[in-house]
Every structure is written in C-alpha cells, then in structure tokens.
Amino acid sequence: MAEPKVTTYIGIDPGYAITGYGIIRKTGNKLTAVDYGVIETKPSTDFPLRLLTINERIRYILELYKPDYMSVEELFISQNRTTAVGTAQARGVVLVEAARANIPVYEFTPGQVKLAVTGYGKAEKKQVQTMVKSLLGLKEIPKPDDAADGLAMAICLANTGTTNAGVAVSGYQYGRYGYSRRNEFG
User: Fold this and answer.
1) 34-59: pLDDT as tens digits
2) Which of 13, 97, 107, 149 is catalytic?
3) N or C: which end of the chain has fewer CB within 10 A?
4) The pLDDT of residue 50
5) Which of 74, 97, 107, 146 is labelled catalytic?
C-alpha cells in the first residue's frame, strides 16, 4: 500500500505591525499544525526596517519548513488607506520571498477562508478560531489572533486545493478582475 501524500502549507495574514503565519501538513485527509506565530514590528522603527524584518523572518520560516504552497489574504482596502498601503507593502515582501523560494502562492478573501474553515462564509472570528483549533487537534485556540488567521489561511488552501484557488495576482490588473495574464505573456 502506498504511503499517503504529505503536503506542507503556509498561510500568511499580512500586516506591517503584525504578520501572522501558520504552517500545517496534510497527510491524506489529516491536517496537523507544524508551527504558527507572528512577526511583530514596532511603530517606532523606520518603515523600511519594518519591511526588512518581515522579509527576513519570512525567508527564515520558508527555508526552515520548505512549504509546498503559500496562501495569503487578498488585500482589502477599506476606510483607512494608509493602513492598506502599508499592509500591501508587507504583503509584497512576503510574495517576493515566496517567489525567491519558488513556492506557488494562492490568495483568498476573508469570506472564502471562513467558508473553507467553518462552512459559513460570514462566520464570526471566534467561530473560525474554534474550528482552527478543532481541525488541527490543538488544545487551545492559537494566540494571538493573527497566528490563528495564518493557520486558517493554510487550512483554507489545504481544504480548497490549488485547482479551485486563485493564484495570487495583482488583482487590479489581472486574473479575476477581467484580464488574463495569458493574453499578455502567451
């Protein structure tokens, strides 16, 4: 009998103050937490150095765990554009490190993550955290919230699969927003 396939996923909840991450393994249909946590930067640190900190920590994590796939939260611009721009820049350094490590990146909206983790696309944060704990067989809900969000991102990709997932793109130029990269690049 063949051994079940083992796939490692990393989920990233990007932010320039706190970037959450979660690494899981899927063996057959079983999900297991490998590691999770946050990368924090201080507001008093110059912004380029905050991005460098995120970059270096993500590079270290990717080299350590060698995930097969990465899942990141799709950027959502709400009321605070300053925060959105900083988050976009943090997300950018994460994507650069994934590219450097040759890891395919997929993106999901918060609603897609909630649906994949809880079965309900408008689930409350606490419901998502409780399901993350349950699906991974953890003794307690991962803390802080950003780490739980990183695990939820990884679970989302593991449960959804790469066939139905959106490859990370610059959403304003490509992919799901009406323009295919294939048109430009062949």
Assistant:
1) 999 999 999 999 999 999 999 999 99
2) 13
3) N
4) 97
5) 146
78-90: average pLDDT: 78
In the chain, the domains with their CATH numbers are: 6-171 (3.30.420.10)
- Check 35, 73, 145, 184 and give the catalytic one: 73
146 is annotated as an active-site residue? yes
Indicate left, alpha or beta for 175 from its phi (over 0: left) and psi (-120 to 50: alpha).
Answer: left
Q: Is the pLDDT of residue 184 over 70?
A: no
Q: Is 63 an annotated catalytic residue?
A: no
pTM: 0.87
Question: What are the residues whose beta carbons fall under 8 Å from the beta carbon of 22, sequence distance 6 or more?
Answer: 10, 11, 33, 35, 36, 142, 147, 148, 149, 150, 151, 152, 153, 154, 155
Is 124 among the residues known to form the active site? no
pLDDT at 63 (0 to 100)? 98
